[in-house]
Design goal:
The longest helix has 6 residues. The strands form five sheets. A ten-stranded mixed beta sheet has the order 8-9-14-11-12-22-19-18-21-16, with no helix packed on it. It has a six-stranded antiparallel beta sheet with strand order 5-2-3-4-1-6, with no helix packed on it. By secondary structure, it is mainly β.
Length: about 280
């Protein structure tokens, strides 16, 4: 294979060409039996993509000649070729958001990019969402001027339209909340019980999606659980604030249990609306 010394930490792709397209593509990769790197199939080709930014400092990956592909399904993979490809530089992303049907001058959109970081322009905020039953609990992670991390799907709330996201090398904001949002860089077949941004009922939220494919660089949510999938998953902003204010400065823990967000303070459990769970 190619000599890839010097590419560690850069946005090169190590690509393994697969000759068994009948099987599900691998979800993890081991190089030379020593290094485990998460990879993904871009769905439009027959190779798995591995981002070399995941390689630890000091690891010598010169002339790697062994690649083991692993998957959750039974089957074997034949690797016919291993090669390098440097992706094109990130470009500005122009977004025309959707107006909130119930609030004039407020707009919503979603965004996802697995490899690149972007700075928010004036008038734009970024949120992640935690699924709590049939609700989406929104937690703000970034304001205008801050940089959102790669590989994190977000909901963008804005007071301007259109606007532009700009590639950034600045330090990204932390994502401390559980993020139930998913994203894809390429068009993929729509998974079961999939929800995307909408406002068909005059209320902004994520609505059940019946289209054949999902668009790239957008966020979506998959509903799971024993309850019947709803038509709409509404937004709830800062739903846990009431619990945190009542309890003062006591440390809290947030966990997901059976699709429900549970907040634990002093051994007492509360749901996202501040009600005690018994």
């Amino acid at each position: 294979m190619d000599n890839i010394e010097g590419c560690v930490g850069e946005y090169w792709y190590l690509k393994a060409e697969i000759r068994n397209p009948g099987y599900e593509y691998p979800t993890s990769v081991t190089m030379s039996g020593e290094l485990g790197i998460e990879g993904h199939d871009p769905h439009e080709t027959n190779y798995v993509v591995i981002d070399l930014t995941a390689v630890p400092d000091g690891f010598d990956i010169t002339n790697v000649d062994a690649l083991v592909l692993q998957s959750a399904v039974t089957g074997s993979f034949t690797v016919s070729r291993i090669f390098l490809e440097k992706p094109a530089p990130a470009e500005d992303v122009n977004i025309t958001p959707n107006v909130d049907p119930d609030h004039a001058g407020v707009y919503y959109s979603t965004f996802f990019d697995s490899a690149n970081k972007y700075a928010l322009p004036a008038g734009v905020e970024a949120y992640v969402a935690t699924r709590d039953g049939a609700n989406l609990l929104l937690s703000k992670i970034a304001d205008a001027g801050q940089t959102i991390p790669a590989d994190n799907a977000v909901i963008l709330k804005s007071s301007v339209t259109p606007f532009t996201l700009t590639p950034s090398d600045a330090e990204t904001v932390p994502v401390n909340a559980i993020n139930s949002l998913k994203g894809t860089d390429v068009a993929i077949a729509t998974p079961a019980n999939c929800y995307v941004l909408g406002g068909a009922d005059g209320v902004v939220g994520f609505y059940k999606y019946s289209g054949t494919n999902l668009n790239p660089h957008k966020a979506y949510v998959v509903f799971s659980g024993s309850n019947q999938a709803p038509r709409r998953m509404p937004f709830i902003f800062d739903a846990a604030t009431g619990v945190e204010n009542v309890q003062g400065n006591v440390q809290s823990t947030k966990v997901l249990r059976d699709g429900q967000l549970i907040i634990i303070r002093n051994g007492v459990e509360y749901n996202a609306n501040g009600m005690m769970v018994k």
